[in-house]
Amino acid sequence: MTTEELTCIEECRNLIIDFAHFIDSGQTPRLAELVTADATFARPTNPGVVISGAGAILEAFAARPRNLVTQHFNLNIRIRQTGPDTAEGLSIVVLYLGEATEELVPGKGRKGNGPIMGTWTDTFVRTAAGWRFKDRRGNVTMHA
Q1: What pLDDT is stored for residue 71 in this prediction?
Q2: For residue 70, with 0-12 CB atoms within 10 Å meaning exposed, 13-18 middle and 19 or more buried, which class applies?
Q3: Distances 118 to 50, 65, 112, 125 between C-alpha atoms, Å
Q4: CA geometry: angle at 93 spanning 88 and 98, to 5°?
Q5: Which residues pair with 70 in a beta bridge?
Q6: What is the rounded (10 degree) CA torsion for 13, 15, 19, 22?
Q7: How would you write 15-77 as a 3-class SS string?
Q8: Which of 28, 74, 80, 110 could form a disulfide with 61 if both were Cys (CB 3.0 to 4.6 A apart)?
Q9: Which pLDDT tens digit goes with each residue over 24-72?
């Protein structure tokens, strides 16, 4: 594997991790740093609804309930560079949901719901600003 391929894999892997971190930490406006202007996105819980454009993706996350607390785990991340400026990825996502209104118990956190398990299928492109999501599609495979 070349240094260029390894760099692509690491940068795209970081996009997957940052996407989850920005959602879980309440920094959803920062998702704009990770997607192209014309990116498309479909949530695992609603894969038939494709959201088009960075602005629309940000609006969809801004419309989420304010009391929703999430914790995403991204597993088995596989990235493959498909061209000089393109790559594709597949990863597993495990999602726990909770409500901010639940009591925050020291040493235990909040009571949560889940898990919801699924997959992310990603298309990445290299831009002048670095690697970005061009398309991100989720699909639920199991729930508890």
Answers
A1: 96
A2: middle
A3: 17, 21, 18, 23
A4: 145
A5: 97
A6: 110
A7: HHHHHHHHHHCCCHHHHHHCEEEEEEEECCCCCCCCEECHHHHHHHHHCCCCCEEEEEEEEEE
A8: 28
A9: 999 999 999 999 999 999 999 999 999 999 999 999 999 999 899 999 9
Q: CA 61: distance to chain centroid?
A: 11
Residue 89, pLDDT score: 98
Half-sphere exposure of 30 (CA within 13 A, CB side): 12
Closest by alpha carbon to 130, among 87, 73, 90?
A: 87
Length of the chain: 144
Residue among 29, 73, 76, 71 at smallest CA distance from 54: 29
